Amino acid sequence: MAFTQLQNEDTYTEKNLICPLTHKLFQDPVLAGDGHVYERPAIVQWIEVNGTSPITLEPLKITDLHTEENMKRLCQGQQPPVTYSTGNDEVRLPTLRISQMSPITEQPPIVSTTQRSFKNNNCISYMWCIGISMILFILIIIASIRLSAKSRSTVPSTYAINTSLPPLVATTTYILPNNCTLRQITPVFSLNNSPSFDFQFYSILYTAIARQTMITFAFRQDPGYWVIDDMSMRETNTGIEVLQNGDFENELLAPFSYCNQQGIDVTSTTYPSNNQSHSGTYAFVDFTANAPDYISQMLTLAIGHMYNISFSLLNSGGPVNSFMVMMSV
């Protein structure tokens, strides 16, 4: 989400007003040297810890930050969106700016031609009025029945496979929570049926909501494999590392625990460096099929503190593949 200094605040959209670090409406937006706009406290904290752009990963200094006055003025007139919770899902409804609302003007009462005719003729026949109303009512019922029948004819009650069509690529459905996670789930990153790629670096920000929190990595490849290495989770204020053995250099999976909700045996292991690890000697390689594998580690976090989750990931690109990072409490 790159920005340049805009003169006309009407060109901003609702998406532009959300900080990519805090995912909240801007309070003090600044334009950074990488061309992106951030919330000042969040990007200052990021630069102090990492010294780079969180988006381009190029070097970035606090002196490269400049207040975005137009966006700040626009955000001051913006109300936060309404959020509805439906269990595991949230629905965020965008707000309507006052400038987008049309004034409501009082309109004179509308009197139909039929009403005026009835008044002018003193409703010549009361029974005639009742008859017209009944006819209209019957016509409305008939139209509703026809529309309902047409809708039912286009939606089959059972579904059959049309073998003349090309097969659809399956997707992975995660039933959460399950016996491999805790009760309250917060997905923070996911890939689904992505093409193959060599090691790529990913970085995610997470704000702790509980002291005891489980981080879980889920994998599936049919057929193929994932490789993950150099995993880290650091508190952004202090830089303290809270994830143990994220580089798997002790040759063991511990203190990570393995789980497969369908009871499938471990089909993954740590491998020595033979083009499998990103750095060092070992990495975690997962060959799971049919159902996702999970590796998890219980962490002790400071509630309200922000943490940077990062890792290097390789995808061999099986036709059906998925990867997810989730936090559960």
TrEMBL record:
<dbReference type="Pfam" id="PF04564">
    <property type="entry name" value="U-box"/>
</dbReference>
<dbReference type="GO" id="GO:0016567">
    <property type="term" value="P:protein ubiquitination"/>
</dbReference>
<protein>
    <recommendedName>
        <fullName>U-box domain-containing protein</fullName>
    </recommendedName>
</protein>
<feature type="transmembrane region" description="Helical">
    <location>
        <begin position="125"/>
        <end position="145"/>
    </location>
</feature>
<keyword id="KW-0812">Transmembrane</keyword>
<dbReference type="InterPro" id="IPR013083">
    <property type="entry name" value="Znf_RING/FYVE/PHD"/>
</dbReference>
<keyword id="KW-1133">Transmembrane helix</keyword>
<feature type="domain" description="U-box">
    <location>
        <begin position="16"/>
        <end position="78"/>
    </location>
</feature>
<dbReference type="InterPro" id="IPR052085">
    <property type="entry name" value="WD-SAM-U-box"/>
</dbReference>
<dbReference type="GO" id="GO:0004842">
    <property type="term" value="F:ubiquitin-protein transferase activity"/>
</dbReference>
<keyword id="KW-0472">Membrane</keyword>
<dbReference type="InterPro" id="IPR003613">
    <property type="entry name" value="Ubox_domain"/>
</dbReference>
